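Tokens as discussed.
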């Protein structure tokens, strides 16, 4: 936002000046829209779930979803329905292992 004020120049004449007023930087977490609180996660570490693998990731892991929450499962194929146990939970995804 520009702020305008008057000053006297060397000759004693009034001169209008504009100065850029810098607002303080707003602090917000990175990727704030992607941050979930632990209470919002639909999965719990150690629990078992039955999921269907819908996609394959570039690193070879399968991708399943529970209520829109991504779960990465290694050593599976697209279309498989498997029982998995959640091993780690992140703010936007979880890792799981196939059981049985």
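Sequence:
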């Amino acid at each position: 936002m520009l702020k305008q004020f008057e000053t006297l120049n060397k000759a004693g004449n009034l001169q209008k000046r504009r100065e850029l007023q810098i607002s303080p930087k707003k602090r917000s977490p990175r990727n704030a829209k992607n941050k979930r609180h632990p209470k919002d996660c639909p999965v719990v570490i150690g629990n078992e779930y039955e999921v269907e693998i819908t996609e394959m990731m570039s690193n070879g892991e399968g991708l399943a979803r529970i209520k829109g929450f991504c779960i990465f499962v290694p050593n599976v194929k697209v279309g498989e329905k498997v029982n998995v146990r959640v091993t780690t939970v992140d703010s936007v995804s979880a890792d799981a292992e196939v059981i049985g």
